[in-house]
Request: fold
Amino acid sequence: MQKVYLAGPDVFLPDAAEIGRRKKELCAGYGFEGLFPFDNEIDPTVSGEDTDKLIYRANERMIRRADLGICNLTPFRGVHADAGTVFELGMLVGLGKRVFGYTNVADDLLARCQRLDRATFDPVQRLWRDANAMTVENFGNADNLMIDNALIDRGGHKMVRHAAPRDRVFHDLTAFETCLRLAAEAVSKSA
Amino acid sequence: MQKVYLAGPDVFLPDAAEIGRRKKELCAGYGFEGLFPFDNEIDPTVSGEDTDKLIYRANERMIRRADLGICNLTPFRGVHADAGTVFELGMLVGLGKRVFGYTNVADDLLARCQRLDRATFDPVQRLWRDANAMTVENFGNADNLMIDNALIDRGGHKMVRHAAPRDRVFHDLTAFETCLRLAAEAVSKSA
Reply:
């Protein structure tokens, strides 16, 4: 049975354990074993090592054990995806694993920067700049071009975008399940 | 000569080419060849392929060619590091390269979440939550624990933190040069 690493800011939810349980249940329905990083939570009383270092190492081991990754790239604390998830996506790609990703906010990065980061058009250079005058990519991607294109090159699919209800942005699993379906198809084709 | 991949949101600056030139000059002073992703800028008129895909592939090739990476992890569009840079840090780690990182904002992730994302203390669970009730890590790290600990495990050093003047946050190269010094020491030790 192929193992799927379940990356996402889901681990920061008050009901993280429940979300992890539901994701792993959905994985099983598609013939996968789901690996949820929250299961690596370390008891700080049992070791002299720093808790965060132990979590890092446990997550890294889990990523290495996985055959593929499904990443929740929903914008987190701003216009971009969660930094921890993006790091793990990069590591999965560096390790040559197949990757899939989804977001529960459907619009482009540029639209979010216009809405949340006062992006304006620079008529001289003919490009968009954020509040710090930094260029905003305008390729129609959901996030930084490295993220969107890694998914296309290393999983065969664009980031799955789903406009979840506002109060369900970190709980809606519609797009996650679409990724599971795409992953199952990819695995069966290469089997 | 060892090659250093220069990851960072520097590529989005109006004077990106000039910053790249200065970083490569500093690299040369420490015996490194600097690889700056902006040099991969693609002329969209010469190819039928999507520009963003060509940039992705050129950056990925550059990362694979590098012996190590120095990542500018200064907070970008919010409390976390730039998503593209974090992706590249993950890829460098997955590929087994040595990594170093710096930030030009000296405070902890928690302090930034308190200041910018209305983080409050949950007295029942005894942890900090951001405006969306998502847990804020409180390990004294500069960013997500995956980022800080990847640098320690795969480069041997904590993220270099430097309180740059407010108007120099994306231009100050003090901490970048500290990373170069640490990288040069590491390379000479393992030679």
